[in-house]
Amino acid sequence: MKKELQVYDNILQLVGDTPLIQLQKMTEDISGTFYAKVEAFNPGHSAKDRVAHFILSQAEEKGLLQPGDTIVETTSGNTGFSIAMVSAVKGYKCILAVSDKSSKDKIDMLRAMGAEVHVCPANVAADDPRSYYEVAKRIHLETPGSIYINQYFNELNIDAHYHSTGPEIWKQTEGKITHLVACSGTGGTISGTARYLKEMNPEIKILGIDAYGSVLKKYHETRQFDENEIYSYKIEGLGKNLIPTATDFDAIDEFVKVTDESAAQMARTIAKEEGLFVGYTSGAAMQGVKQYALQGQFTKDSKVVVLFPDHGSRYMAKIYNDQWMEDQGFELHENLKAIPNSQK
Ligand code: PMP
């Protein structure tokens, strides 16, 4: 059947409705059927398009935003890109405070989208005046007519996924999903999606992914904030050194932690085996699937949705760069090298 020519009013109409793609080779050795929810299909190439579009639309509906106003945010990159994209379309000024852990590619992209970017040190306490939280807060206070998205502490971050990612997955799996595997940073994605799915079927298991060096898993298990869990790590966007209120810990059944090295190797494997060029945390999510499988979480009847948050192009200087991998001391099996030695 011939498709009718379809025209969009602007790029924002393409946010959401990302595909669910069955994984083939990577999950051959695991019981169950596995589907990737590939968020790189959003126009800004990550799940954060949903959050930026939802929060700014809500602010407009409440009359909190006028054209020319300023949007301020702290971000590891993706949220910033999405806010910059929405701001460009809607005519807002976008000011972003980002961590110096963010890749240079990401920072350059934000600037290309018209954002003003302030690069702040990652390894200082959240309440240090140099931290990206404090810098964003100060800019917000000093800028009349600005709104601060504050994604880690904004309940609307959860709602964005409750109203989009959750219903999409439910519909795409015809209600047959048994497990959701998702990374947790702000927690918005996993919490909003989980709330919707659990409302539809409380039996669905919500399996979170955390990073070594982050407090989330320990907090989930003990409801104690344990400073000893905190140390620096490489994966951007996963885990946290504070407890975000955008995480609904009660909606999550379990967490596993993954290493920087295994997540990076796994991202490369996804590209080579499934043809899906995805980001560092997609590798983390897939590594989490493997660890959950070893724990015996899945059976042959399991229908598991794994959320892949963003696109691989944002990590060319990091996980997809052989030298960077070597510099981290990460093992690169011959079949995972960008250019195998035999072809050099
Ligand atoms: N992956 C990437 C690449 C991200 O930027 C983020 C956001 N920090 C996440 C995963 C985690 O998503 P959320 O913030 O919704 O928990």
What fraction of the residues are assigned to beta strands by DSSP?
15-25%
How far apart the termini lie comes to 47 Å
- What characterizes the major β-sheet? 6 strands, mixed
Q: Give the cofactors and ligands.
A: 4'-deoxy-4'-aminopyridoxal-5'-phosphate
- The parts where pLDDT drops under 50 for at least 5 residues are none
As a percent range, the share of helical residues equals: 25-40%
Shape: globular
Report the radius of gyration as a whole number of Å: 19 Å
Helical stretch tally: 11
Which structural class do the helices and strands define? Answer: alpha/beta
Mean pLDDT: 94
> Any guess at the CATH architecture of the largest domain?
3-Layer(aba) Sandwich
The strands making up the biggest β-sheet line up spatially as 1-2-10-7-8-9
The total number of structural domains is: 2
The CATH class name of the largest domain reads: Alpha Beta
CATH topology of the largest domain: Rossmann fold
What does this protein look like?
There is one protein chain. By secondary structure, the protein is α/β, with parallel strands linked by helices. It has two domains: 214 residues, 3-Layer(aba) Sandwich (Rossmann fold); 102 residues, Rossmann fold. It is 35% helix and 15% strand. The chain is built from eleven helices and ten strands. The longest helix is centred in the last third of the chain and has 15 residues. The radius of gyration is 19 Å and the shape is globular. The chain starts with 19 loop residues before the first strand and ends in a 17-residue tail after the last helix. The mean pLDDT is 94. 4'-deoxy-4'-aminopyridoxal-5'-phosphate (PMP) binds next to helix 7.
